[in-house]
Amino acid sequence: MSKEIRRIVMFHTITICNNTLNLFSDKVAACLRKKGIDVGFINLNAQGTELADEYVREINKGFDAALAFNSSGQHETSMQEDNVFEYMHVPFFNWILDHPCEHIADIQSNMKNYHIICLDRDHVSYIKRYFPNIAGVHFLPLGGDLASDDIDYSKEAFRNRKYDISFTGSCFSLERLGSIIGNLPEELRVASVDMIEAMCDDRSLNNEQAFRYALQKNNIAFDDSLFLKYSKITAKTNPFVRSYIRSEVIQYLAASGVKMHLFGDGWDDLEDLGNIVLHGSVPYLEAVQCASDSRISFNIMPLFKDGLHDRIPTAMLNGSAVVTDGSKYINEIFISEGSEKELFLYDIGHPESIANVLINALEDMDSLYDVAQRGRKKAEQSLTWDSRIDELINILRG
Fold first, then answer.
1. Is residue 289 a contact partner of residue 352, using CB atoms and an 8 Å limit?
2. Considering only 45-54, 188-197, 236-245, which range has the smallest mean pLDDT?
3. Cα separation, 394 vs 398, whole angstroms
4. Of 82-86, 205-209, 346-350, which gets the smallest average pLDDT?
5. pLDDT for position 14
6. Based on the number of CB atoms within 10 Å of its own CB, is 303 exposed (0-12), middle (13-18) or buried (19 or more)?
7. Other CB atoms closer than 10 Å to residue 107's CB: what's the count?
8. What is the DSSP code string of 175-190?
């Protein structure tokens, strides 16, 4: 029997990742309120007794569930030496935006009514295997965002957009991440390097598959418990591979002469970027505007092998044609071939071929516009925040 959800509590946290966690929280709250569910917020920027007052205020109002992005608010307050949500017998839903290996300390919760929401179905399988005591694990990608409510989707406006191609995404320092990995205990350092090489050589591998291969290659004995322990220690391999692949793709595009407008941190470390125009980091809402200003929104999946990144539905809703690598989920829900194509797919295993996909797409502006419009219609049908929140409400009700 499903539970009635009348009111939930969410969290505002420190500004990280261009304030995306707070903006996502606000978007979710607005959609829930439209559907008749009240939402309260706890300000985690408060300190000491002020933070306690934030919790007391919401506890006095009452709520049926707590919802956080990336564990915000999960640990801050206890009641009678128990987690406040556990004490109140209220379910806590943690919507994780990265691979679970980057959040193991948070996921190892003692709460009995603790739920994880993932952006990738492989992540769901990972948590079900290594965290069997978690009450529920759910798959739900994020919704797409609109730059404004009055976007001109006409063909003429499409032709006159500011950018041919844009990409919004940062690149972590490989030197800094490599230094962290280099300081790991010898066995795990060697295994981490083998894992990185495996994921770069075979780009269909997910994190778990590559790490299991690396441990076995180095004759490191492990069961599920030890695998989780080693995954926690070597978690920086994931952002290393992500940044390595991103930088490699951009360097191939630069060498090909493709002109792209790139928004994000960390790209200054790359040399000889040719026609790649660096704009630096921009706030999340400006990144959404970039999609509205672009004929093509380029995407590199963040190692989600069976999931979806919000850059894709956001680009589509803003009338931009998407060029991206695939995943099992992307391949299931989008048409990428023939006359009904909704996006362009490239093979991340052959980065040298990506430039031709972009160049060929730009050669036929009418066809490019048609792909953008089919993608927009697909996103409007099922990839908006409103449609995702319908799915979220079902998850919250249990």
1. no
2. 45-54
3. 6
4. 82-86
5. 79
6. buried
7. 22
8. HHHHHHHHTS-HHHHH
